[in-house]
Amino acid sequence: MNQPLAYIHPGAKIAKNVVVEPFTTIHNNVIIGEGTWIGSNVTIMEGARIGKNCNIFPGAVISAPPQDLKYNGEETIVQIGNNTTIRE
Q1: Residue 85 belongs to what H/E stretch?
Q2: CATH number at residue 8
Q3: Averaged pLDDT for residues 23-43
Q4: Given 28, 36, 59, 85, which residue has the most CB atoms within 10 angstroms?
């Protein structure tokens, strides 16, 4: 799991068998379930909840601030279920 070329915030909760490829950034307040693969150059921002056995391909950005005009800086989360594939 520990990829020396990735940044993983100490406050992120990542299952032991998650694979994190190089140049990925995982922010605080993130939970990632067992068996998930995270490709290179992925950014997972605060508030992401990612299930088990997911595949997140290179270049994806998860849990960025909403683009909705009504968004006013309040706390948000993104929930991704088990066995999900996300592409850039």
Answers
A1: strand 85-86
A2: 2.160.10.10
A3: 97
A4: 36
Q: Which two tokens stand for residue 34?
A: 């067992």
Q: Answer whether residue 29 is part of any domain.
A: yes
**pLDDT at 30 > cutoff 70:** yes
Predicted TM-score (pTM) of this structure: 0.91
Bridge partners (DSSP) listed for residue 31: 13, 49
Domains identified in the chain, total number: 1
Alpha helices in 4-81 (DSSP H): none
Would residue 75 count as lying in a domain? no
**Whole-angstrom distance, CA of residue 5 vs CA of residue 50:** 21
- For residue 88, give the 3-state DSSP assignment: coil
Residue whose tokens read 């990632």:
32
pLDDT level of residue 3 (50, 70, 90 thresholds): confident
The answer as to whether 73 is a domain residue is: no
Q: Which region, left, alpha or beta, applies to residue 49 given φ > 0 means left and ψ of -120 to 50 means alpha?
A: beta
